[in-house]
């Protein structure tokens, strides 16, 4: 199925090197591209703040600043009260655009004199300082401008529009270097960039809009995408309506392994999620002390304990399963580590999460298996698996998820705002931007594990499991939080999840 240009993600360098070639193939000049970019920003501005709102446009020295200069002229023509605050233009296009503004008696103030009091006189601030042109840390003058803008925005409740990328945000990795504009809205040009979709991006980008400028389709033919967005259609085609003659045996058997004393809730959440995601049967293999608690919490779960169970008993139990979810509430002590070794030694497909990941970080050889493996770490777990730090993982999430997949020979999902997914042999990374701060609570990961395990058992294609699970989990989180993000519980995702798997 063809992928929409709205789902394709390209590295900044790819766009920079090929956008003019794509434009020229359609007889579109660089000046026309700049006009189209400015018109797209004007349309976003008009939707949010109709004229005669007061607009301050901060222009940098390059073509991002040129977009700002052109926007200044267009906005004034459409009735806005516009003030340009700018660095000295350096690129040819920026110089032309600045000269056109000044020829029309537009006023300009120096960017280095920007102060919070002056900013507060405006309704809208447009950030056209550096965009995606940033290749190193901001220098002191731009750090000062960014901090002044953010301070004024938060104190005076101003609306901030960034052109292409918030200044200071690294457009491939999604990290502030070292500070970045906190935009309410970002219009990015030609193609989506990786750094606008993951890591710290959600904090700085605000609402993201892609302006194709009429050349995206031509650009698409010149470059292979670096990543693709997971959308609802991707999920729906893997979950067709069920046959009227279906029975539980056709929809897979999931076994959840975990539930050390005091952590039985993790297994209950994973088991419920597996059921709500459509598994025909869900069994639990747990610690003897957790048996009664889990059985009473969810009657549909078939619960067995490991009391007096040998490795042979466990392997025979697991051989009945279509998928095993290993890790929710497992613990890293002797009981959990022993189960982890036994499970990974089978030929059953395994979804590894939580303490299962932490045990494998200590015993890497156990993950060397011929049977399929899926892993779903958060940055802390990923750091332990890769023998690094959480901060290092977050500095380049794209590299981290690819290393996880390759070093563990697994389909890997790196949790976070902008979830990243890739297989051991995949060229293109998948990214899921669905989700909500409501998911930032203990137990949410267990729900994701249960969903993924259910999809494995139901026979979805190996590479589709984690993208579909991430989308279902994130969207269920959004719907569960409609009444409020604070206080939403992982168990609140179950009813939305049920609806989402029945498109």
From TrEMBL:
It comes from the Bacteria. Keywords: ATP-binding, Isomerase, Lyase, Metal-binding, Multifunctional enzyme, NAD, NADP, Nucleotide-binding, Potassium. Residues 231-503 form the YjeF C-terminal domain. Binds 1 potassium ion per subunit. K(+) binds at residues 64, 127, 167. It comes from Pseudidiomarina terrestris. InterPro entries: CARKD (IPR000631), Nnr (IPR030677), Ribokinase-like (IPR029056), YjeF_N_dom (IPR004443), YjeF_N_dom_sf (IPR036652). This is Bifunctional NAD(P)H-hydrate repair enzyme. AMP binds at residues 415-419, 445. The lineage of its organism: Bacteria, Pseudomonadati, Pseudomonadota, Gammaproteobacteria, Alteromonadales. Residues 15-221 form the YjeF N-terminal domain. Belongs to the NnrD/CARKD family. Homotetramer. The keyword Metal-binding applies. Bifunctional enzyme that catalyzes the epimerization of the S- and R-forms of NAD(P)HX and the dehydration of the S-form of NAD(P)HX at the expense of ADP, which is converted to AMP. This allows the repair of both epimers of NAD(P)HX, a damaged form of NAD(P)H that is a result of enzymatic or heat-dependent hydration. (6S)-NADPHX binds at residues 63-67, 131-137, 142, 164, 266, 329, 378, 446. Its EC number is 4.2.1.136, 5.1.99.6. It catalyses: (6S)-NADPHX + ADP = AMP + phosphate + NADPH + H(+); (6R)-NADHX = (6S)-NADHX; (6S)-NADHX + ADP = AMP + phosphate + NADH + H(+); (6R)-NADPHX = (6S)-NADPHX. Its cofactor is K(+); Mg(2+).
């Amino acid at each position: 199925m063809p992928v929409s240009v709205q789902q394709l993600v390209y590295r900044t360098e790819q766009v920079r090197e090929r956008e003019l070639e794509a434009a020229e193939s359609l007889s579109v000049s660089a000046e026309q591209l700049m006009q189209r970019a400015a018109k797209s920003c004007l349309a976003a501005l008009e939707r949010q703040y109709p004229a005669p709102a007061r607009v301050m446009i901060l222009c940098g020295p390059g073509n991002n600043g040129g977009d700002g200069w052109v926007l200044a002229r267009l906005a004034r023509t459409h009735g806005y009260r516009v003030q340009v605050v700018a660095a000295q233009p350096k690129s040819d296009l920026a110089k032309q655009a600045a000269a056109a503004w000044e020829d029309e008696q537009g006023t300009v103030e120096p960017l280095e004199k920007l102060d919070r009091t002056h900013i507060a006189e405006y309704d809208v601030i447009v950030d056209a300082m550096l965009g995606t042109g940033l290749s190193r840390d901001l220098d002191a003058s731009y750090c000062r401008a960014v901090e002044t803008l953010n301070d004024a925005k938060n104190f005076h409740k101003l609306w901030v529009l960034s052109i292409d990328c918030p200044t200071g945000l690294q457009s491939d990795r999604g990290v502030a270097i070292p500070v970045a504009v906190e935009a309410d809205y970002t219009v990015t040009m030609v193609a989506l960039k990786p750094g606008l979709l993951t890591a710290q991006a959600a904090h700085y980008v605000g609402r993201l809009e892609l302006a194709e400028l009429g050349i995206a389709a031509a650009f698409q033919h010149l470059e292979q995408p670096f990543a693709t967005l997971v959308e609802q259609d991707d999920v729906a085609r893997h979950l067709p309506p069920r046959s009227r003659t279906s029975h539980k045996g056709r929809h897979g058997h999931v076994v959840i392994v975990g539930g050390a004393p005091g952590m039985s809730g993790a297994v209950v959440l994973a088991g419920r999620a597996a059921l709500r995601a459509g598994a025909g049967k869900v069994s639990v293999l747990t610690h003897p002390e957790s048996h009664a608690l889990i059985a009473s919490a969810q009657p549909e779960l078939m619960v067995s304990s490991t009391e007096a169970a040998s490795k042979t008993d466990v392997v025979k139990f697991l051989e009945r399963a279509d998928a095993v979810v290993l890790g929710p509430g497992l613990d890293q002590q002797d009981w959990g580590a022993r189960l982890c070794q036994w499970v990974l030694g089978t030929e059953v497909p395994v979804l590894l999460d939580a303490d299962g990941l932490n045990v494998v970080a200590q015993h890497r050889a156990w993950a060397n298996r011929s049977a399929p493996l899926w892993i779903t770490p958060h940055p802390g777990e990923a750091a332990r698996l890769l023998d690094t730090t959480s901060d290092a993982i977050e500095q380049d999430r794209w590299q981290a998820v690819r290393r996880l997949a390759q070093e563990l020979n697994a389909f890997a999902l790196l949790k976070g705002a902008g979830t990243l997914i890739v297989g051991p042999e995949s060229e293109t990374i998948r990214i899921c931007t669905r989700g909500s701060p409501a998911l930032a609570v203990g137990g949410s990961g267990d729900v994701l594990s249960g969903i993924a395990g259910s999809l494995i058992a139901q026979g979805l294609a190996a590479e589709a499991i984690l993208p579909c699970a991430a989308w279902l989990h994130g969207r269920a989180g959004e719907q569960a939080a409609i009444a409020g993000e604070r206080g939403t519980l992982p168990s609140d995702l179950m009813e939305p999840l049920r609806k989402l798997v029945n498109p």
